[in-house]
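To close the chapter, one final illustration. This time we ask the reader to focus less on the individual chains and more on the assembly as a whole: which components sit near each other, and how the overall shape emerges from the parts.
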Amino acid sequence: MIKIAQLSCGTEYSGVQSEIEKAATTVGAKMVFPDVEASEIDKAVEEFGFTPTSAQLKLMIARAMAITDGRYDADAVFISSCFRCAEAALIRNELRRYVQEHSRLPVVTYSFTERTKSGQLLTRMEALVTIVERKELLARERQVGLTAGIDSGSSTTKAMIMRDNVIIGKFWHPTGEVVGSAEEALDKALAEAGVKRSELEAIGVTGYGRYTIGKKLNCQLIQEELTTNSKGAVWLADRQKGEATIIDIGGMDNKAITVRDGIPDNFTMGGICAGASGRFLELTAKRLKVDITELGALADRGDARKVPMNSYCSIFGIQDLVTSLAAGQTIEDVAAAACQSVADQVYEQQLQEIDVRQPVIQVGGTSLISGLVKAVGNVVGSKPIVPPNSQYIGSVGAALLSSGFLEGHR
Amino acid sequence: MKVFIMPPNSLILYDLVERYGHTPLSLMGAISKRVMNPEIESPPINVTPNDVKKGLKYAGIEVPSGIRGRLAIWGPLVDEAEASIIMEDAPFEFGCVGCHRTDEMVRFLVKKRKIPLLEVRYPTSEDEAKVLVSKIKAFLEGLK
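The assembled structure is written out below.
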């Protein structure tokens, strides 16, 4: 059983400890608490260099050191504290850095409220377990045989057919009924590839509808999108070796993932605010009466600084844009401000929880909006790489990883 | 050498660092640059919302804005520092940043830099004060 070391403060008193454990159990893991002697705590805090006032935070530091020193055996680390506790937020981030600098264990951080449910933690826990359990599979750099990948996203469903490391068919369309959308995308991609479904040697599926589709289509690989998308991104960008940061701004949630040799070692997932997602850009395009595909080019010609945005919210933010339009700003400036707003929010909310490593690879459907790529470049300080077929990362990753199941049969 | 002082607005530490031939990195210096800036955006000390955003380099969004705003000023000073003197338990009249969380974080940032560091306690008697000044003098003279 995979052991996830929990370094946390306040989970028991927030009533969320059972939810954390439920999420871990669901993915076949177990939360463990590194044992430390009371006498070790002050020494650990002294060595760490940050002396928090809260004793529970001191214990978190000592527990982290027990793991990095090898005194306690764990496979992954989950660092968590109460939302809005300033001292804990400072410690959480620095402990995450410390564990990453002193070990090769995958780490995820999370700030919770009393409303946190196991479902919100599931993808993160599943990713931690996948990284530990499927290291060999994730190390796969070439796709072999004839395989398909399906990515059932919140906004769109994508399918990709690959043969011996080459893309031979692909299709995407808006997600409707989950299984029906997946089957239609798969059939259209198969038609483009000129192969029959029966000829496929393996199918991999990722995204929100992965379990339902996986069961229905009898998929060999059913995997969360954090690890699958990372794999697809580094394959498409031809950056399988070395370090990189993947930024995936999706229709409903965002992912920021740092990878080493294509395997994630830290990630954050947004998803509580539509203002930081592709949905905000869809609403902006609708308000500007342009197609979403035209928004990027419009934004490229605009100047975001001319449009004051007082809110990142998808309601009040759009209101700011409308007010600016009424005040005579051009639609180019408003489009640029919308893109900058999404990029700023991703930067402020998510990129603080990881250490951005160059190069930055921007993927997902929104990476086709050039104005957003430019805005992300502004906040990360370098132009992101947008690989070809960047909207297909999930399906590429699923097709590539599912081919790992063929090895024994070939 | 550039010596970061903590509390960063301590006039006594500032004076000692300067007296022994080094450049104090202090709040006074950082703030004066802002106040002298003719483009006043956010008086009295000209910390703008954009500065608060720059503080994200040192602390995440969940950390209150006052801490991030302070870190936006002191963080770069710590980054620039070649040595540091930290005074513990000082009364606020001696120098104070007004925020315990920022205090904790700045101390951590200094220690993380692994630069020459002198940690001293505020003296409670005249004899302790003499010992303190000698310690600071020896530390500053030893810096190359």
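Chain B has a mean pLDDT of 91. The interface with chain A takes residues 53, 56, 59-64, 67, 100-101, 104-105, 107-108, 111-112 of chain B (CB under 8 Å). With these observations in hand, you are ready for the problems at the end of the chapter.
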